[in-house]
C-alpha cells in the first residue's frame, strides 16, 4: 500500500481538483492522509465530506503548526509501505503512483520531474540535474550525495528540492521524520530530503513528469516572510549538525554553505521589501576576467544595476565609466550614469554590455563598432540568472 500525505491549509479553491487527481490514480491500493492544519476558509468541511465518500481517505485536524509539522504527523500515521506527498493546491497525473512504485524496486527513493506553472500560466519542465539511473551505495551514491544540494558547484539544484515529486520507503521516512526541524516555514523540504538521502543505499533518478505545480500568487513561497533570515539560519544549523557525522561531511557542508550564500540574494524579495531594495538576481558572467582590468559598463537597467552592485567594491576590477543611452533619466547620485559619448574620453580595457536580450546587445555592439571601437574590446554574455 502507498500512503499519500496532503497538508491542507486554506486551499478551498484548489482542494477538489487535487483530490480528484489523487483518488483517480490507476494504482488503487492507496490510503490518503489529509492533515488539516487549522484551515479557516472552509477547507476543513470539504476534507470531511471527501472522507465520507471514499474510505481510503483519513482526515486529521490539528492546530496551525505549519507544513513540516503536518507532514511529520502524516508520516507517523502512515500505514503504507511507501509514502508520497502532494500539496493541496497542485495536481498529479493519474499514472504517478503506479509508475513510481514500478520503478522504486529495491531502492529507497525514486524521483520524477515537475511541470512548474509561472504567473503567465505557462509551464516549465524541471527535472533533476543527474542523469536517469540507479545510484547505488558506493561511488555512484557518493557522487549523488556530493552534488545533491548544488550540482557541480553551480547555481543549479542537484536534486529538485521538493518532496512532492518522489516516492519514499515509509520505514526510513518514519526514522528520518523524528529529527526534522518542524519550526521551519521555508526550506522544510530540503531538511527532510537531505537527511533521508544520507540514510539511503540506493536512489532511482527518473526524468518522467507526473506532478503539476500550480502557480498561486498568495502561496507561502510568494507571501511576505519576515522570519526568512531566521528560517535560513535555522536550516543551515540543523543540516550542518546532521552532516557532521557523515563520511562526506566536507562536501556536504561546502554545498550547504554555497546554497545558503546564494539564498541571501533572495532576502529582500522573500521579506517583502520595496522594489528599489530588491537584491541581485543577475550575476556578473565574467568571473574569470584578468585582474586590474578597467571596465566601461554599458546599460543601467536591472542587469546593469546588478552588475554595478557586484563590481563597485571589488579591488580586482575597476568600473571607470557607467553609461546608458537614457543617462539623464537613470543617473544616480552615488554612481553617476553618463552618456555613451563619454566612452571616447576615457581609458578602458573592455566595454561590458549589461543587458539581458541578445538582440539588444547586438544592436549596441554594432553602434559601438560603427563609431570605431574595436570589436575585441566589446563583451556580452547572458547574465547568470538567479531564479526565485
Report on the architecture of this protein.
The protein is built from 13 helices and 18 strands. It is α/β, with parallel strands linked by helices and 388 residues long. It has two domains: 267 residues, Spore Coat Polysaccharide Biosynthesis Protein SpsA, Chain A (Alpha-Beta Complex); 104 residues, 3-Layer(aba) Sandwich (Rossmann fold), CATH 3.40.50.720. The strands form four sheets. The chain has an eight-stranded mixed sheet with strand order 3-2-1-4-10-6-11-9, sandwiched between helices. Strands 5-12-7-8 form a four-stranded mixed sheet. Strands 15-14-16-17 form a four-stranded parallel sheet, sandwiched between helices. α1 runs parallel beside α2 and α8 runs antiparallel to α9.
Measured distance between first and last alpha carbons = 36 Å
Q: Sheet bearing the most strands, described?
A: 8 strands, mixed
Count of extended strands? 18
Fourth CATH level, the homologous superfamily of the largest domain = Spore Coat Polysaccharide Biosynthesis Protein SpsA, Chain A
Q: What multimeric state do the chains show?
A: single chain
In terms of topology, how is this protein built?
Blueprint: E1 2-8, H1 12-23, E2 30-37, H2 43-53, E3 57-62, H3 67-77, E4 82-85, E5 91-92, H4 96-104, E6 109-111, E7 113-117, E8 123-126, E9 133-136, H5 139-145, E10 166-169, H6 170-177, H7 188-198, E11 202-205, E12 209-213, H8 228-243, H9 249-263, H10 267-270, E13 282-283, E14 293-298, H11 302-311, E15 317-323, H12 327-330, E16 350-353, H13 358-370, E17 378-379, E18 384-385
Parallel strand pairs: 1-2, 1-4, 2-3, 6-11, 7-12, 14-15, 14-16, 16-17
Antiparallel strand pairs: 4-10, 5-12, 6-10, 7-8, 9-11, 13-18
Helix pairs in contact: 1-2, 7-8, 8-9
